[in-house]
UniProtKB/TrEMBL annotation:
Residues 214-306 form the CobW C-terminal domain. Belongs to the SIMIBI class G3E GTPase family. ZNG1 subfamily. This is GTP-binding protein. InterPro entries: CobW-likC_sf, CobW-like_C, CobW/HypB/UreG_nucleotide-bd, P-loop_NTPase, Zinc-reg_GTPase_activator. SUPFAM superfamilies: Hypothetical protein YjiA, C-terminal domain, P-loop containing nucleoside triphosphate hydrolases. The keyword Protein transport does not apply. It catalyses: GTP + H2O = GDP + phosphate + H(+). Keywords: Chaperone, Hydrolase, Nucleotide-binding. Coiled coil: none annotated. Signal peptide: none annotated. The keyword Zinc-finger does not apply.
Length: 309
């Protein structure tokens, strides 16, 4: 029996991983395999989501739509050979991926026969200005969507919320728009109620040239960080960042990881689990426009955060 695919797209920091985590945590007995594609050499998103399902497959070092096309197809083939076989597959794209290119790959006749694409979900950060939807990449992500989930709606007032819904509706009239409070999107919108129903193949336009717009700079340390100094360092780097995320141990709370996220100019810290063996005690991925940050600037800024050896 074919295994339907849900493709989750959205810009950097929109809230995709929160949506996927919620879906996996409320699987209602279904076997869901998740393919998590992160942008950068350290796949932070896969680590944040791995505890929710034993079906997570980690892809890194680029986005699915370009350098990882072959890996994506091989990964799907591997998932489909599992026993027991998954009933549903979720693919979370990198925040810099154009889903149109991934959709084109999933229309491959061999893949379609075994793992047909059923739904494209685009997660949009509702706290951003509506004008941000004019970004060419974000518009491409919206144009591919069957369902648009407005994330972080609890952080905006009613007028801004309504303005974002109107802006999304203007760009993608055919999509279903829902509020995703704490990542919750109704499963009935994402997967078919009848798993025997065959999805309809999608029209795909000509392949667009891939532009290198963003780059990642990863920073690791074998030593824990001092939290006050880290907060100061992030404050200095934040104006140049499109996104940042990481896992680190602090001097103040040894033996326990903290989860760091920077999106939309807002930084958050949350408690994580115990550090994994044979991994650096501090790992952060910085994502910026090409040329906005240098390796030297990252290293010199972050070196002041670590405990002296």
């Amino acid at each position: 029996m074919p295994v339907p695919v849900l493709l989750v797209a959205g810009f950097l920091g929109a809230g995709k991983t929160t949506v996927v985590n919620h879906l996996l945590a409320h699987a209602q007995g279904k076997r869901i395999a998740a393919v998590i594609n992160d942008f950068g050499a350290i796949n932070i998103d896969a680590e944040l989501i791995a505890g929710a399902s034993d079906g997570v497959v980690s892809l890194s070092n680029g986005c699915i739509c370009c350098t990882l096309e072959g890996d994506l197809l091989r990964t799907l083939a591997t998932l489909l050979r599992r026993d027991p076989r998954p009933e549903l597959i979720v693919i979370e794209t990198s925040g810099v991926a154009d889903p149109a290119d991934i959709v084109r790959n999933l229309m491959d006749p061999v893949i379609w026969q075994e793992a047909p694409l059923d739904t494209v979900l685009c997660v949009v950060d509702a706290t951003q200005p509506a004008e941000k939807l004019n970004d060419a990449l974000l518009r491409s992500q919206l144009r591919a969507a069957d369902v648009v989930a407005l994330a972080k709606v609890d952080l905006v007032d009613a007028a801004h919320h309504a303005g974002m819904r109107d802006a999304v509706r203007a760009l993608r009239p055919a999509a279903v728009i829902v509020d995703a409070v704490h990542g919750e999107v109704p499963a009935t919108l994402l997967f078919p109620a009848d798993l025997d129903r065959a999805p309809t193949p999608r029209e795909t336009g000509p392949r667009q040239p891939v532009l290198d717009r963003f780059e990642t700079l990863s920073w690791t340390s074998e030593r824990p960080v001092r939290l006050p100094q880290l907060q100061q360092a992030i404050g200095r780097l934040a104006p140049k960042l499109a996104r940042a995320k990481g896992l680190f141990e602090t001097v103040e709370q040894p033996g326990r990881l903290m989860v760091f996220q920077l999106a939309g100019g807002r930084a958050t810290l949350a408690p994580g689990g115990a550090p994994a063996p044979d991994t650096p005690r501090s790992r952060i991925v910085f994502i910026a426009e090409m040329g906005a940050l240098s390796r030297g600037e990252i290293d010199s800024t972050m070196e002041g955060c670590v405990e002296a050896g």
